[in-house]
C-alpha cells in the first residue's frame, strides 16, 4: 500500500510538472487595439475560440481609443502588437523612425463606417449633404480621410460645400451627434445600428462600399520585434488566419454568440445585425495578406486628403512573407 501511495504521489507530481511546463511555454503578447468595435470580430473570435491559445500565445488585450495612442503604446514598448489603421505606419515612416512599424497581417479590407443622418432619408443622394453640418472624424485618421475621399468622388468639397466639424475626440463623437446640431456623422458598428434602433439616427450609406478595397486595419509590430520574434509573429498570424476562415464559414448569429463578451451592453441581435452588414460588404479580410493594390489605394486616399507625408513603399512597410507562408501561397 505504501508503495502504491508513493507511485500515485509521483504520478501527481508529473501531472503538476507537465501543467507548469505548459504554462511556462506560453508566450504572452500585449495587443493594443485602436478601439472596441464589431468591425474587429475576427480578432475576438481568435481569442475566444482558442486559436491564439492553440498557437501557444496568451493575449493581453487593451483598447487604446485612438490611432495616435495605439502607436504610442507600440513604439514605447507598451504593446508588442497593435491593431490600427495602416496609415499610422506611414506617419511613423515619415518621421525617420529607427524602428519602423511593419504591417504583417490585415484584418479588415474596407472602411468600417456608415453615414448616419438625424432624419430618415429614403431617397438620399450625396447632394443632400451640401450645405449641411457634418460631424467628421479626427484629422489624418482613416475614417476622416475615407469620408473626404468619398465626398470628393461625389463632387463635394468637404471644406467648402458643408460645415465640417472635426473638434470632437473619437470616443465622444456619438454623444456629440445625438446631443448636437450636426445633421450627418460617420459611425462604426454597433453604434450606428444602436442609434437607428433608438431613433437617434438613420443609416443611409456605407463608406466601405463607396471607397473600395483598402487595408483599413492591420496588425503591425516594430521591425526589431519582428526580427527577434519571427516564430511568435508567425504563430500569431496563423491564429488570425484560422479566425478569419472561421468567420467566413459561420453565420452572423454564430459569430455574435462568440464575441458577445466584448460588447456586454449591446444586444446579441444588434451585434449579429452589425456583423451581417460587414459580411455583406466583405469588410472582413478572408486572409491576412495585405496586397499591393490595397496599399496603393490607401496612399491615394491619403494623398487626396493632403495627409500623405511622403511616398511609403509597400516593400518597406508591409511584410507578406509570414502571411504567405501561413496561408500556403
Automatic annotation (TrEMBL):
Family of this protein: Belongs to the bacterial solute-binding protein SsuA/TauA family.
Principal cellular location given in the protein's record: periplasm
Localization: Periplasm
Record Pfam families: NMT1_2
Recorded coiled-coil stretches: none
Signal peptide span: 1-21
Protein name: ABC transporter substrate-binding protein
Transmembrane segments: none
Keyword flag Signal: yes
Protein's UniProt keywords contain Metal-binding: no
PROSITE patterns: PROKAR_LIPOPROTEIN
Keywords: Signal
Amino acid at each position: 500500500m505504501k508503495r502504491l501511495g508513493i507511485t500515485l504521489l509521483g504520478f501527481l507530481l508529473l501531472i503538476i510538472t507537465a501543467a507548469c511546463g505548459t504554462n511556462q511555454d506560453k508566450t504572452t503578447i500585449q495587443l493594443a487595439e485602436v478601439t472596441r468595435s464589431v468591425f474587429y470580430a475576427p480578432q475576438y473570435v481568435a481569442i475566444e475560440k482558442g486559436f491564439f491559445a492553440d498557437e501557444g500565445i496568451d493575449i493581453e488585450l487593451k483598447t487604446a481609443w485612438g490611432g495616435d495612442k495605439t502607436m504610442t503604446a507600440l513604439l514605447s514598448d507598451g504593446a508588442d502588437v497593435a491593431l490600427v489603421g495602416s496609415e499610422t505606419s506611414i506617419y511613423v515612416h515619415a518621421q525617420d523612425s529607427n524602428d519602423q512599424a511593419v504591417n504583417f497581417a490585415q484584418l479588415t479590407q474596407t472602411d468600417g463606417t456608415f453615414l448616419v443622418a438625424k432624419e430618415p432619408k429614403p431617397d438620399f443622394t450625396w447632394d443632400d449633404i451640401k450645405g449641411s453640418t457634418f460631424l467628421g472624424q479626427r484629422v489624418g485618421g482613416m475614417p476622416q480621410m475615407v469620408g473626404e475621399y468619398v465626398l470628393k468622388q461625389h463632387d463635394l468639397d468637404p471644406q467648402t460645400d458643408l460645415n465640417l466639424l472635426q473638434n470632437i475626440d473619437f470616443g465622444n463623437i456619438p454623444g456629440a451627434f445625438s446631443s448636437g446640431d450636426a445633421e450627418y456623422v460617420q459611425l462604426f458598428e454597433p453604434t450606428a445600428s444602436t442609434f437607428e434602433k433608438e431613433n437617434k439616427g438613420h443609416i443611409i450609406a456605407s463608406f466601405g462600399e463607396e471607397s473600395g478595397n483598402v487595408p483599413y486595419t492591420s496588425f503591425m509590430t516594430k521591425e526589431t520585434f519582428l526580427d527577434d520574434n519571427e516564430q511568435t509573429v508567425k504563430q500569431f498570424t496563423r491564429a488570425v488566419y484560422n479566425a478569419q476562415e472561421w468567420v467566413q464559414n459561420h453565420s452572423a448569429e454564430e459569430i455574435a454568440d462568440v464575441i458577445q463578451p466584448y460588447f456586454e451592453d449591446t444586444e446579441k441581435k444588434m451585434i449579429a445585425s452589425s456583423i451581417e452588414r460587414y459580411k455583406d460588404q466583405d469588410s472582413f479580410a478572408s486572409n491576412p495578406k495585405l496586397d499591393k493594390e490595397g496599399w496603393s489605394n490607401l496612399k491615394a486616399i491619403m494623398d487626396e486628403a493632403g495627409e500623405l507625408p511622403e511616398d511609403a513603399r509597400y516593400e518597406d512597410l508591409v511584410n507578406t512573407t509570414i502571411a504567405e507562408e501561413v496561408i500556403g501561397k
